[in-house]
Amino acid sequence: MSMNGHFKEVIPVDMYTVQLCGVLHEQDKKVMTLLYQPLVGAFAYSLFMTWWQEADAYKRSSHQHLMNITQFSLKDIFEARKKLEAIGLLKVYKKEDEQSREFLYELQKPLSPYGFFTDGFLNIYLFNRLGQKKFIEVKQSFLTEKLAKEEYKEITSSFSDVFTSLHPSEMVAKGYMEISDSTEEHLFDERTDNQEISLRSFSFDMDLMMADISSFIVPKEEITDEMKEAIMKIAYIYRMDPLEMSAQLQNAYHLHGQLTVENIRKEVQKWYRFENNDGLPSLAVRKQPVPLKALHGKEPATEEEKTIKFFEEVSPYQMLELYSGTKPIEADLGIITHLMVDQKLPAGVVNVLLDYVMRINDMNLAKGLVEKIASHWARKRIQTVPEAINLAKSEKKKYAEWQEKKSASSYKGRRGAAPSDSNRLPDWLNEEQKSSSEKSGQPEEQENKKWLNELLKGL
Length: 459
Prior knowledge:
InterPro entries: DnaB/C_C (IPR006343), WHD_DnaB (IPR058660)
Number of strands: 4
Protein name: Replication initiation and membrane attachment family protein
Number of domains: 3
Organism: Fictibacillus iocasae
Structural class: mainly alpha
Family: Belongs to the DnaB/DnaD family.
Mean pLDDT: 76
Distance between the termini: 47 Å
Pfam families: DnaB_2 (PF07261), WHD_DnaB (PF25888)
Strand order of the largest sheet: 2-1-4-3
């Protein structure tokens, strides 16, 4: 960009408004100062902190005002803004007409200390910036000692200890309908915290589970703190009590000779299907949450909106079922669980990812490719279907390179083998390809179009 190239993007009289995506806490200030500032620089850090304070006021301001209070040039502000966008701390929206241009700056929550130091990208970037010694010092500043709870007896009151249950006469249907309507249609605040799935409402007695496990069958050192966290998530998904989980842990260790998250999931899935007549945990059939639906309560007017509506109204389980024509296999359901629990991607976003990978990979759900793209989307904090589609469009060259590496690895050593010519991009990702295929009238394309139309009729 030339010295004055930023004036094509923003000028001093352009207005802007700042809002927060979620709630920023004191801990986030420390993360911003010690972890993000070395990566984005002082200008970008200062700009973020300034906008943080302005977000509370929620008023329109001009970029000239921003130049005055920061004492930065417009060029410095624009370059700092770009850094915040690139690192996932800012989303920018623009509306303009012939007379004016206005921006909405939406601040994103920084990663938690744990999320940052296990990111696999930002932590390496910070290590290279600070050097080993300083990196370790900064990392240790976020470590906290926990008191040994074994010396204490828990006396926390439960809900039922404090609050009385409702009398039947108080349970008026109309009132509950109003509660449901108000929370879905008129949200108090649609901004999301982008935090991990909360397990606080799910009671799981880890001590009881540990006490029930025989040390003759499973050595206690096999169950690490990291393993316990994974066990909690699995128990949450499948609604297991401690004794049920204990039995499956012992079964997994007996059959496989070691405890891994994958082995535990495999045995729990078998157990769950047996106990529930081949039923599914509720997580696998969830759909896009209402607050994250771009077309909630709206009729799609364009082909693109029909596609978005489709991804928002089906579950990932239904997506896999539609592709295979039968019940999804356990391995594929495990991938969905990983995407929704570990990567924290909503159901609609998972649908976009599944559709993309299946289409470019000859209808095979390649776990490695799925996880690589999912990790990228999670870092970008993708939460809605339009966001997922737009990012896939902008990054399709990068994903193609990942796919080529995977294909080269898969076919290495197989004489005469070559990647399938049937691999193609989804229609929603390549509009030019879509129009050309429609003109050609190929049977496969016509069949796909008919299939999608039938699906949309049923929504």
